[in-house]
Amino acid sequence: MNMNASQWFSNGILGEPALMLGFIALIGLLLQKQPAQKVMSGTIKTMIGFKLMQIGANETGSSLSNMSAVIQNSFQIIGIIPHNETITAMAQMNYGEEMAVIMLVGMIVHLVIARFTPAKYIFLAGHHILFMSALLASLLISSSLATWQTMLIGGVLLAAAMTASPMISQRYVRKVVGGDQLAIAHFNSLGYLLSGFVGSLVKPRRQTERPPLKKTKLSSLFQDHMVVIFGFTFLLFASASVFSPTGSIESMFAGRHFIVVSIIQATWFAGGCYIVLAGVRMMLSEIVPAFKGIADRIVPGAIPALDCPVLFSYAPIAAVTGFLLSFAGGFVAMAVMMQLQYTVIIPGVIPNFFSGGAAGVIAYHMGGKRGLVIASLLHGFVMSMLPVFLVPLLSNLGYLRVTFADIDFSVMGIIVDAVMKWFS
Amino acid sequence: MKQIIVACNSGLGTSLMIRLNIEALMRELDVQVSVEHTDVTSLKAHNAKLIVCSSYIMDSIEDAGNVEIIGLDDIMDRQYLKNELLKSTVFQEWLAETE
Lengths: 424, 99
Description:
A: 14 helices, B: Rossmann fold, 4-stranded parallel β-sheet
């Protein structure tokens, strides 16, 4: 059958998101004038990376539905885990092509904003661009917008978020890093604003020099994230099993002991996460350099906005303390939710590591030890509470047991939903 | 093979930025070195001679075997990165081989 050019484009490239992303990478690599071999391998790897995300999403999805069955069986609640990578991988199974176009439009509009306005931030955390495109696609598709409108509006909103987010947190980030040489590209800017603000409120009256806190071995315990994900999933699964009605775990999982079941499920989930992570990395390792290369050329005086761990080395122990206290604040939020309602957000260990850690550094810098403690607990509480309002807005993705973690995602979801309701 | 592995917690953001800086530096110094970025979990599988990471995660990869590790306090300063790399014994060997 013969296809004309536009059919070939819409059924061929747009019809398959992996091809669409490969196409974006191809353009990026050609624009950078890379050698032919690099162009080919980069394009292929981008497509493989995208497929890996789908494969990983299937696996994490299966183990999560087991976990949620056990939690429901034991506590009569629906437990939802905030984990950006997993929810994004699940969203792209349905809305991959919209996400791909939203990313492309978002990156272009973001460059235009940086080129022609005083907001010179270049948002370089590719994975967060991907997560936000997943959120926007999921939200906008539930409206009555045509596909091209979803892609265009989504892209513009993504670009706006990529500029606004570093700008919002810069007020405090500037004080931590001592200038405007870098900003933070992490969709938790409202969380950082909150931590910085609370930190500066409880600032000790006597302005004393803040000694750099000493490093401990504790911090290295949390660095290997697959081990952390395994450990946390295992604890969650095992503790839910302990409270389950007698014999129900055995009957659900072919007569196996609950400890064995918990180990199997935790390795399954961590393994799935690893595949998703490897996929995201493979996909972005071609797209982000192209994006940065173009930005370097066309945006003079750009402020690079980087992933949040860049703050950790400014106060490593405040980062670990911030993570643990933020995590604790999440458990307080969980306890409150368990009293109030059926859907409960289980604090995610990985998002708290990143967002809680960076928030801790900012809070410590603004308000010393007291600021660190108060702001981190509050940050974790708010971060775990907000997805309660986001989860119902994502119902068109199906009854998933995961959601977006960081504060900007929840706030963006609430705002976009309110505006869409207002217009319709 | 001359290969530098750049690592960070999830192998997505920080490590990619450091990788781009190292690649630019390699072009500047005209040295053929392949640079890959990865997460802490996969680090051992790479069997690297030289690892670059943020100083924040250095403690957790000290046991990575017979390998030289450079922990950066500042991930954006290219001059500082250059100085740190030029101090490295593994990198000095590679430079000597190139000449």
